[in-house]
Write a structure and sequence with these properties.
alpha/beta; Rossmann fold; 221 residues; 7-stranded mixed sheet; 6 helices
């Protein structure tokens, strides 16, 4: 496994700060055959952490986020790290004309929430709607459109979203999916604040103190 040098990234208020889920997905990325010929699409880039991880291998990276604050943050982090990353603002559900990519990566908002994901504000970075899948499903559909045949999607999300649902959806989109990594991490502030609601919905055991994260790899057939 290759381990290129990484620098701390700027993550201003309202932009998702790289955390355990980011590290888990970077670990999966490190096992992919990424080189200067590889084209990579980062869906929901946030601070740009995943885009920069791919760019360190020389990949040609395009990163997309719906938040202007995230877009400018990712551009600044790319500049600070000397990385050639193209960062665009766009809604994942309406992306067109991006071309065919070899690899797509995504750490989408996935925490189940009482209402629909907000269109503005810091909560955009984690709110996933009542099932946690509002953005996860968009990532699956967008990757199926944007990847070339044989291209690969790497996506991380909470097991609360339903890993089987992701596998079935990706299979229905003409992809071959599998779970390639998982980890149990302590609850962060959002999960701690939402514990009561998640328990009431039957999504979480009242004794739980850790969240299960899964990394899904799916190849477009």
């Amino acid at each position: 496994m290759r381990t290129p040098r990484r620098r701390r990234l700027l993550s201003p208020r309202g932009v998702y700060e790289p955390a355990d889920d980011t590290a888990l997905l970077v670990r999966a990325l490190d096992h992919e055959p990424v080189d200067p010929q590889t084209t990579v699409l980062d869906l929901g880039t946030g601070s740009g952490a995943l885009a920069l991880a791919a760019a360190r291998y020389g990949a040609r990276v395009t990163a997309v986020d719906i938040s202007w604050r995230a877009v400018w943050t990712a551009r600044l982090n790319a500049l600070r790290n000397g990385a050639a990353v193209t960062v665009r603002r766009g809604d994942l559900g309406a992306l067109t004309g991006l071309g065919a990519f070899d690899l797509a990566v995504s750490n989408p908002p996935y925490v189940p929430s009482p209402g629909a994901p907000p269109r503005h504000g810091a909560a955009q970075a984690w709110e996933g709607g009542p099932s946690g899948r509002a953005v996860v499903d968009q990532v699956c559909a967008t990757a199926a459109r944007a990847l070339r045949p044989g291209g690969t999607l790497l996506m991380v999300h909470s097991a609360l979203c339903g890993e089987d649902e992701s596998l079935e959806r990706l299979d229905g989109l003409g992809m071959k999916p599998t779970v390639v990594d998982r980890a149990f991490v302590p609850f962060g502030p959002v999960m701690r604040a939402r514990r009561g609601w998640l328990c009431a919905r039957g999504l979480l055991d009242r004794e739980a103190t850790v969240e299960e994260l899964v990394v899904i790899r799916a190849e477009l057939l």
